[in-house]
Amino acid sequence: MLLPGTGSDDHFVREVFTEALAAVGVRLLAPAPVPGPDLVEAHLAALDEAARRGPVIVGGISLGAHVAAEWAVDNLDRCAGLLLALPGWTGAAEGAPGAITAAHGAADVRARGTEAALRSAVAGVDAWLADELTRAWTGHGDGLADSLAAAACRAAPTEAQLATLDVPAGVATCLDDPVHPTDVARVWARALPNAALCTTRLEVVGVDRAALGRAAVLGLLRARAA
């Protein structure tokens, strides 16, 4: 089961991961976010439900990767592997570019409304990313600000917690993504006992969303083979 990132949605998760998982015979489960202050708790409940019948590969993009790894720390016996794309920080969220961006977005939505905040959020970004944000932010409806705020203050697993996750893990990063620094992905890959880091670029994902999923799945396959 794979989870979406901050202010994102299950549609983007499917764009990223469907092709790569199908190629290795894995069925994708991608729950829709439940917008609002309990966004993360809803993600954790979805992971619990997915693992009721046995161990599952879990992961996600950005916040989704954080939440999946957090769940795995407490449910290692139910985790068969990790697919972690674009982790944004390690441990406390304070000062991380992704957390700052989410907090600013939440404040702007509350102050000016979604339409005006969205215009600012997409100003100057590539057309594909503007399209993704427009669809996802609109889909969050009245829960958007609370969703962004919930993500902005949520701690990611620490290095010590990541070190307890001895399942195979694929970590993926975009080398040109300032919001999800590659240095963070490297920290995660080093901390995880059995992980491989694979890279792509946002400019590639812009024309081929599946490139990010292929990087994560390739990392998982390399970790399994190690």
UniProtKB/TrEMBL annotation:
Highest taxon above the source species: Bacteria
List the protein's name.
AB hydrolase-1 domain-containing protein
The species this protein was found in? Actinokineospora spheciospongiae
Which InterPro entries does the record cross-reference, listed alphabetically?
Answer: AB_hydrolase_fold
